[in-house]
Every structure is written in C-alpha cells, then in structure tokens.
C-alpha cells in the first residue's frame, strides 16, 4: 500500500505531472522512512545516476520507495555533466535538460537517423580544449564550430528533455545499406518479454536481422555468473526450471517458450518496425546470461557487441544458415 501511494506521488512529480499528493502518501512516507533507513538511504538528499542507462523499471521501483533517481548525462570530455535532472525537473526515461549555459543540439543525418533523432552534440565552456598531444583525434570529436560530437544518438523533446536512444558506433548497416539503431529495438523486445534478461540484435551486412536472447536466471553472487535456474517472470512461462530446458523448448515450434518469444517479435514487427529492413526474422535463446565475468558486458553493464558476437559466433552462423 505504501509503495503504491509513493509511486502515485512520484508520477505527479514528473515533468508535466499534476504535482498532487494524496493524504495516504503523507502516512506512507512515515512507513517508507523506515524502509530507507534499513537500506542506508535515510540521510540521502539526492540520488544521482550516470555512466550507464538506468532502466525505467528500476527508477520506478525506487520511486515507489519515495526515492527519486535523478539522471545525469555527459562524458569525461565535457568535464562530467551536460544534462542534469533535478528534484524540480525530471522525467522517467530522460536524462534531463541541458545544464546551465551549455548548448545542446541533435545532428540528424538523413539516411542514418530516424526523423527527429541524431547524434547528440554539445558545446560550452565545460568542453575540453582537446586530447593532449593528439590534434587528429581532437578534430574527430570537436568540429570547427566547437561542437563536441558525443557518439550517442538521441532526441530532445518539446520540454527540452534529452532522450538517449542508442550509439552511433552501435548502428547496424544491413546488406541493403539501411542504418538501424539496435538499442531501441532491443529495449522494445525486453519490454514485451518480462522473462527476458538481455537481447542482442545482429544484422550488420546481412540480408535480415536476428536476435540473441538470454533469460532471467539467478546469479551466483561469488562468481557473478548465471546459475542457470530460471527466476522471476522466466520461471512462469512454462514448466522449464533451467535455462538449458528453456533453450531446448524454444527450438520446438508451438512450445510455450517459442510462442512467448515469437509473439513479442511479431508484435514488434507489426507495430514498431518502421521498415521491412528493421524487422526481426529469427531468434535464438542462449544458455546462461550476458555478464561482465563472461566478457559480454562492461563494468557498467554495457553490451560489448563485437565480443558477444565472437563468443556466440556459432549460434549466429546457424541463424543465417
């Protein structure tokens, strides 16, 4: 009950929200104060998050504990932050507005980006002078007008809030020459499939796109690797108790796992793919999960696409056979 009241109040605090608070929320705060003390956050004034994308469901969970996670975005080359969410101005799914006098724009390239999207660029006194003794690399990142090209893809909404949708370097260029940002597609599939832990889209220089999928499993806290035992929503899809059993089942047409995943892919293809080139044709479920120890993820849990593709090259090859 208390979490539900806090979640309602948190939605009201979002940019564009009503700002209203129920009487129940005032009582819920007393309960949640004890919860925050139990997890060591009772003295925390602001909770900032940066370095890696914060899943919306994580932000919403902390909001239900009456804790707003405020997203900050930037890079070392701009002395830290360029956008900054505050108590007064924040919104789930965004990293906030430009900080102070910093300028920010979207460099949209026709044929590479979706309408309204493009590379995030910014300039201001917070931008570095350049890389030490490396003028060539500096010129690659900072143009003649002083704009720092971040390599991130995003869109600025009508309220000036920045949404990050992918990375320039992560773009997939199909055999037909179409540029596809895989991250929004991967996030869409995960949103449609709560039982899925990680998704990697493959399709560079290929005639069609495929997905590598891992399922939610319990993690061994000592090794940091998957135990193979299905957890959460993944444990409810079928009678399969382990990822190996689910992998086998996913290869059987009409089985619970195959139907569950195919239904999500069909939904994405029919409602979200903006062209035939962006549609998903095949998928494979992998045993285990992507992890830092396994080599597929960085320390900030970003996907190492080239490494993951190399590790799972045999599976990818079968999907294109």
What does this 3D model show about the protein?
The protein has 321 residues and is α+β, with helices and mostly antiparallel strands. The protein folds into 2 domains: 2-170, Rossmann fold (3-Layer(aba) Sandwich), CATH 3.40.50; 172-319, GMP Synthetase, Chain A, domain 3. The protein contains 9 helices and 14 strands. Strands 4-5-6-7 form a 4-stranded antiparallel sheet. Strands 1-2-3 form a 3-stranded mixed sheet. Strands 10-11-14 form a 3-stranded mixed sheet, with helices on both faces. α3 links the parallel β1 and β2. The longest helix has 16 residues, at 23-38. The radius of gyration is 22 Å and the shape is globular. The N and C termini lie far apart (52 Å). The model has no long low-confidence stretch (mean pLDDT 92). This is AMP-dependent synthetase/ligase domain-containing protein. One of its GO terms (cellular component) is endoplasmic reticulum. It comes from Calcidiscus leptoporus. Residues 47-131 form the AMP-dependent synthetase/ligase domain.
Bin the strand percentage: 15-25%
* Quaternary status: single chain
How many structural domains in the coordinates? Answer: 2
Q: Report the span from N to C terminus.
A: 52 Å
What CATH calls the topology of the largest domain is: Rossmann fold
Going by CATH, the architecture of the largest domain would be: 3-Layer(aba) Sandwich
H-E string: HHEHEEEEHEEEEHEEEEHHEHH
Q: How many strand segments?
A: 14
Low-pLDDT stretches are none
Number of helices: 9
| CATH homologous superfamily grouping of the largest domain | ANL, N-terminal domain
Radius of gyration: 22 Å
Instruction: Give the overall shape.
Output: globular
Q: Characterize the biggest β-sheet.
A: 4 strands, antiparallel
CATH top level label of the largest domain: Alpha Beta
Widest sheet, order of strands: 4-5-6-7
Return the average pLDDT rounded to an integer: 92
């Amino acid at each position: 009950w208390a979490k539900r009241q806090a979640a309602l109040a948190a939605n009201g605090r979002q940019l564009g929200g009503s700002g209203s608070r129920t009487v129940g929320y005032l009582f819920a705060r007393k309960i949640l104060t004890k919860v925050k003390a139990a997890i060591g956050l009772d003295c925390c004034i602001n909770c900032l998050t940066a370095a890696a994308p914060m899943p919306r469901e994580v932000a919403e969970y902390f909001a239900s504990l009456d804790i707003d996670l405020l997203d900050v975005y930037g890079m070392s080359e701009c002395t830290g932050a360029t956008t900054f969410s505050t108590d007064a101005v924040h919104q789930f799914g965004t990293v906030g507005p430009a900080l102070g006098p910093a300028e920010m724009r979207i460099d949209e390239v026709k044929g590479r980006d979706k309408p309204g999207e493009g590379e995030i660029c910014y300039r201001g006194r917070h931008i570095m002078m350049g890389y030490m003794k490396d003028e060539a690399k500096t010129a690659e990142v900072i143009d003649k007008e002083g704009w720092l090209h971040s390599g991130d893809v995003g869109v600025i909404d009508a309220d000036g809030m920045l949404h990050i949708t992918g990375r320039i370097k992560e773009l997939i260029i199909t055999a037909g020459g179409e540029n596809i940002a895989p991250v929004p597609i991967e996030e869409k599939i995960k949103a449609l499939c709560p039982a899925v832990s990680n998704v990697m889209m493959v399709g560079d220089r290929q005639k069609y796109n495929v997905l590598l999928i891992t399922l939610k499993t319990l993690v061994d806290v000592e090794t940091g690797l998957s135990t193979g035992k299905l957890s959460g929503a993944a444990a409810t899809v079928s009678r399969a108790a382990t990822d190996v059993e689910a992998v086998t089942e996913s290869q059987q047409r009409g089985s619970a796992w195959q139907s569950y995943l195919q239904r999500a892919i069909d939904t994405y293809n029919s409602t979200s793919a903006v062209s035939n080139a962006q549609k998903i044709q095949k998928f494979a479920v992998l045993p285990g999960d992507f992890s830092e120890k396994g080599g597929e993820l960085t320390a900030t849990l970003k996907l190492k696409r080239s490494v993951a593709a190399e590790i799972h090259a045999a599976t990818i090859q079968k999907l294109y056979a």
